[in-house]
Amino acid sequence: MTSHAAFIDRQALADSLLSCGPWKCSNDDQALIDHATAQARAVELETARLNDPIYALQRARRRATQHHLTPPTGYSCTGELLRLACPLWWRRQLRRLTSRRREQRQRLLGRTQKRAGIYVSNEGYRRRIDQATRNARLLEAITATNQEGDQYTLAELTELGLANPEFRRAELMLRIADTEREADRAGHCGMFYTITTPSRFHPVRQNASLNHKYAGADPREAQAYLQNQWAKARAKLKREGLGIYGIRVAEPHHDGTPHWHLLIWMRPEDEARITGVLRRYALEDSPGEVAHNTSIRFKAVKIDRSKGSAAGYVAKYVAKNINGKQHNRQGVPGDNLDHYGKPLETSAPRIEAWAACWGIRQFQFVGLPSVTVWREVRRLKDEQRVADWEAATRPEPEAAAILDAIRKAAIAGAWDKYLHLMGGPMQPRAAAPIRPWRVVRQTVDPANINPMSGEWSSDTLGRYGEPMASTWGLVVSSQLGETEYLTRYYRWTFERKGEAAGVDFQRVGEAAAPWTGVINCTQTTPKSTLDDWEWHITESFRRMFPPLPRERVNRIQQQAAIDAHHYRVMSVKRRLEHEERERLRASLEEGRELLIAMLARGDMSPADIPPGVLA
Questions:
Q1: Secondary structure (3-state) at 472
Q2: Higher pLDDT, 543 or 215
Q3: pLDDT for 542 beyond 60
Q4: How far is CA 343 from CA 261, 263, 329, 353, 571, in A?
């Protein structure tokens, strides 16, 4: 096939990506919102008309599939149907689909590369900026207030957490540097690996010309390929009893195709075998491409501590993938530039836009303890609150000692000590002494009703009628049992600060449901309980006569309200007609009595009265 014919084929394929059934992937966000609302409304009306949840769910799934969307799975029939009848679900899915289809179109046409839009197309980068602007307006427009009266905008709270790129970069570098410190203490060696996908995943060559071997895969498919090869390698290492731990960084080539950097520690005697396993699976696909130079697809570098630390090896990759800020190393020319000679501070936002568009996780640690536990323990900075909690719950002394040691290490920012106290690297999560404490929030709100079944639940239900589980604190395990520690004390309520131009509030004027890490409601004891016979009778009745769908209940209530209004109107009319008849009857009776009196006096004779008047 000639290059011109190949370009024509690419153009046709690129144009076909914009057609997703009834939806054409338009850049008009308002058109997308209108289409999402229309689809959700159609599912809602069809569900009410069919009065058969199973059949309605099948038709709703078919509607999503026609839009090239993956229907929700893993939920109850009610949960899936409520999602497919939700405008917000359709909006999120269509935005994601549109963003990825339009970006893949740019890649096919060669507009995502170092001579055009590096890492992500210029159109995709602008779309990400618009999205960030919308999100910023929304965060500024909503305030959060806790039970102590402290009030912040969501934008202010966001800057205090890991959504702040500076804090995120600092935590990553701390975990990497302290993991290396623990590795040195254990006598382990470090290796730096780079793994790249085969040529068929790259739409553009290194010299920015079109790659005719390209098979049409998008970055998510390339990432899935890397994950599959990595899963096979880890399974092989586990079978051979070879332990590893470290960090994986996913970043894009100039054409948006991902590749991986792995900073891995291991026992020195295992290094050769581990490198061999990783090389085998990295080059398993299309080995002929690298027959003369395997470093194109797989490169292994041993960390030389005389030349620098492992953190120094990955500092540039971390900075490049977060905010582009790092301390430039002295004597290293071009340390502020990426692999393609672009400044890190301009490359980082484009890489962030690439990761957001394709939903690719940039950083992942392997073989290390839970970072969620680390973050939750660091919330326990108030000594008095910890003392009050222990006085109220009386934890087992060994569990209290375990938490105290780990808490002091975490608050001090000593990830290496935390890692050691949590059992060290290469240990299963189940063996760790502390794990997150997740609980379904409770409520006594009478309005907490499943929108589809109409049943009330003490569990706090989400938008789709499902219990909402959240992290409340930590569970500490000791030889004598488990002890819970509360880490989230504040109860927050959210409300709109003011009218924000361009912000789409779903419920204008309403505050979001409050949430808390403690149960603030008064606990009540039921007045009576059902015995076994009553319980079985109740359950049998509920199964024989299940509650009506919420939509049908709403329609019945609306019709009942209309009927009641008509009844009241008709009642007024009937009352007026009755009063008029009674008035006429009284007038006739009065006239009859008057005629009888006139006959008695002789003022009139019976011949003067028409027949039937006195009947």
A1: strand
A2: 215
A3: no
A4: 20, 24, 15, 16, 80
Distance CA 419, CA 177 (A): 12
Q: What angle do the packed helices 29-50 and 77-84 form, to 10 degrees? A: 140
Q: How many CB atoms lie within 10 A of CB 598?
A: 14
**Catalytic residue of the set 245, 281, 313, 464:** 313
**Are 202 and 113 contacting, i.e. CB atoms less than 8 angstroms apart?**
no
CA-based angle 275:278:283, to the nearest 5? 120
pLDDT score, position 512? 39
- The DSSP element (H or E) to which 339 belongs, if any, is none
Pairing of strands 469-478, 481-486: antiparallel
**Alpha carbon distances (Å) from 231 to 114, 228, 236, 294, 423:** 31, 5, 9, 21, 24
Q: What tens digit of pLDDT does each residue of 549-586 get?
A: 667 667 776 777 766 666 666 666 667 777 777 777 77
Between 407 and 328, whose confidence is greater? 407
CB-neighbour burial class of residue 575 (10 A; exposed 0-12, middle 13-18, buried 19+): exposed
Identity of residue 334 = G
313 is catalytic: yes
User: What would the two tokens of residue 609 be?
Assistant: 């009265």
**Residue that is written with structure tokens 């939903």 in the block:** 359
Residues 6 or more apart whose Cβ sits within 8 Å of residue 139:
153, 154, 155, 158
Question: What's the DSSP call for residue 549?
Answer: P
| Cα gap 319→344, rounded to integer Å | 8
Catalytic residue from among 193, 214, 245, 317: 317
Q: What is the pLDDT of residues 390-428, one digit of tens each?
A: 999 999 999 999 999 999 999 999 999 999 999 999 999
Contact predicate 84/72, CB 8 Å: yes
